[in-house]
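Issue 218. Parser rejects a valid record. Input:
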Amino acid sequence: MDNEKSMKDNVDDSMIKDVSENIVKNLDESIAQEDQMIILEEETNIDDNTEESLTDEAGKGNGKKRSKKILIAIGSILAVFILIVAYFVGTRPGRKALYGMCSVVLTSRLDVVEAEQNEENILFTEPVVEVNTKGEEESSPYRKEEYVANILLVGIEEIKGGARSDSMMIASINIKDKSIKLTSLMRDCYVEIEGHGKNKLNAAYSFGGTDLLMRTIQDNFKIHLDGYAVVNFASFEKIVDMLDGVDIELGRTEANYLNNNNYISNPANRNVKPGWNKLNGNQALGYARVRYCATLGGAKDDYGRTLRQRRLLNAIFDKYKSKSFLELVSIMYDILPEIKTNLTTSQISDIIEQVVENSITTIDNYRIPADGCFQNVNNECGDVLVLDFDANIKELYKNIYLDETQIIVEK
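Output the parser choked on:
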């Protein structure tokens, strides 16, 4: 496959080179022909006219020569411009360069956590085999595949100077089946947190921020995360408003609940109705936070809330699918300052390239823990979900990687 890609790229480069050389050659020949015609016209004028008319005609000839050369120069510029556009749009190497330029611009707008960036973490590559102190090769305990990139999405609720991860999802870009997988991780999952013992999953962010949350997810679910993107409640509202709202269908119970409670913080926005609504940022945030009301379809409690969050991301993605590439870049330019991430410029470029080149327009939705793979328990941490990790890791792998192989679970 790589050989075919390399051959195609070489053919594209060869085609561009040939076209370039032909344009230059034709332009040189055209200029030479025009110069020869002007010289012949001037010689004819010399034979047929007096000395006075000779001066006049020479001036006209020089003017004609300059005009034609200007036209040829303009034609040259247009030809080069067309060639550049053809290169950037019509060839994979050209489009790759365009994605790279876009990623540089977009990264300049992001709130990038430079100290936590890992330049060696290249997306869509085979896992790196590490060598231990004994010189022995060791594979990572976290599953990584060259056809998948996993980005952790975190929604943060900030209250009185503190913060907690109210929403946690793994967004997986899968170029094998050309889809994005959104997997919600329920915050009450009872997990082992490095240095803090067992607790709810969302406690990891409170103890050590996004870095500890990422390690906790990797350690417990044996899955490699390539990076993260974090947005707080205020930024989420701005993002939805920049998109001119999102379309969400509400059940009658949901609509009544939202209109009669403070999840929608601005009372002026408590005017939603059963059926389809275009929710603004404030309304969308309220919708995403509801847990004590059944969803359209009957999901309750935190199961319903994580379902609402996935429905919102699907609605946002549907908005994006209707936009052109340049429109998306313009929208992202405004949105990105609201997002905190540790993704590098090259990683963002890879994501853009793979999504566009593979025409990825499908989102699949999942939830961990999976049905039948956990128990509701009340302990010192309150109401928690005690997981069958073997079963849940199998489900996670099956959903994201399309198979259950390479299951590594510490006993």
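Fixed in the parser; the record now loads. Residues 237 and 281 are 4 Å apart (CA to CA).
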